[in-house]
Amino acid sequence: xxxxxxxxxxxxxxxxxxxxxxxxxxxxxxxxxxxxxxxxxxxxxxxxxxxxxxxxxxxxxxxxxxxxxxxxxxxxxxxxxxxxxxxxxxxxxxxxxxxxxxxxxxxxxxxxxxxxxxxxxxxxxxxxxxxxxxxxxxxxxxxxxxxxxxxxxxxxxxxxxxxxxxxxxxxxxxxxxxxxxxxxxxxxxxxxxxxxxxxxxxxxxxxxxxxxxxxxxxxxxxxxxxxxxxxxxxxxxxxxxxxxxxxxxxxxxxxxxxxxxxxxxxxxxxxxxxxxxxxxxxxxxxxxxxxxxxxxxxxxxxxxxxxxxxxxxxxxxxxxxxxxxxxxxxxxxxxxxxxxxxxxxxxxxxxxxxxxxxxxxxxxxxxxxxxxxxxxxxxxxxxxxxxxxxxxxxxxxxxxxxxxxxxxxxxxxxxxxxxxxxxxxxxxxxxxxxxxxxxxxxxxxxxxxxxxxxxxxxxxxxxxxxxxxxxxxxxxxxxxxxxxxxxxxxxxxxxxxxx
Length: 499
Fold this sequence. Notes:
Layout: H1 13-19, H2 27-31, E1 33-34, H3 38-48, H4 56-63, E2 64-65, H5 82-92, E3 94-95, E4 111-112, H6 123-135, H7 139-155, H8 176-186, H9 190-194, H10 196-207, E5 219-220, E6 223-225, E7 231-233, H11 247-255, H12 261-273, E8 297-298, H13 300-319, H14 323-344, E9 345-346, E10 351-352, E11 355-356, E12 361-362, H15 372-375, H16 381-395, E13 396-397, E14 400-401, E15 416-417, H17 419-431, H18 435-456, E16 463-464, H19 484-496
Antiparallel strand pairs: 1-2, 3-4, 5-6, 6-7, 8-11, 9-10, 11-12, 13-14, 15-16
Helix pairs in contact: 6-7, 6-8, 6-19, 7-8, 8-13, 10-13, 11-12, 13-14, 17-18, 17-19, 18-19
């Protein structure tokens, strides 16, 4: 692992560039590649910054190469169908095996990046990108990306948010087991055994500290001891400082929050690890960003993912002929399933919700995270039926499902819809026989994607599903196109419904 100086360790150059918004997007600077040693650049900055006529941006451009923007120069052939456009883009969004370069953590195999400002691999994005790669017959690339994630688990100890050094404090929603299942479905079940060592290491990362939990120490790392002794999981970054890639935004929010900066940064980083950066589901008052308390929450979707990881490890041991280990892992999964039912099903709301373990109460925010128990077959038929009613009545909009029922200006709230959540909801509904609703959601989402493509020549990171003629907004950066997971889900839904 890299031990050299990082851009975000260059004081005061890093702070000066970020706080003065030298680049509109704070991620740009931390992705830059230094043209000489950072030690030398920092020394030159200290010598020159007080000189007459010094220009900070000119200094940065003299000493750093700007990051490559994937798909930025791609010219859309508007005569092609949307699916044809996506299949043309795979090569454009493919990054070759890396060497050490700036903040990039090198990977040994080719991989597909989301596009736009996201020129590195992203953990949970990649599963949905892989759905499209599989549909397109690109199993070799699915395998390459899975090998890369196994490499990260073996070398870093876990799969970071993305392969950048500034992401080394956190992971992202743990979809690794689903990636292994995807490849196993395309090849054979021995794939589960092949990846068993890294599946177990992934689990150890998420369960680290479980043996340290007690009544006085109810949460550590990603694990939480619930009131009746069950162990569940939360999002939690290893660091409590402002995120390098969003440094100015974090510092400015801290100035307007009643929370201590370190505590606020802990919750912001946990929110980034969730992939839902950001949403009212993480706000203590349900409205204000400054009340974010992500690390105090047991998220329903995270625990569903870890349930699937436990089941996948169990199945791998079963295939390996180790019945005792199979039974042991099955029991872990069953215990988690019961805990999800106990803490996350809300009888009044008739929907699955997150749980605030600090206050000992369920969150009242209804979000599409509540469809994960359907996707992973944790819900009862009655719960799925009630959830389907809520989805139809409250979440279904002209362009698909809205992420939450609140409009806060955050990108993971209304009026935005996101490809991975459409996929999880659609597949979850199909598991419980709600075929017409699932197909309706899929068709609305595909139509919105197609309409925007025909209008702009692009596939977007997120969409406005309420007013389908408007661009999606909100969040810390401009809307991005490319776009890995949207492309993947589009192809997978087309195949699923023969559209």
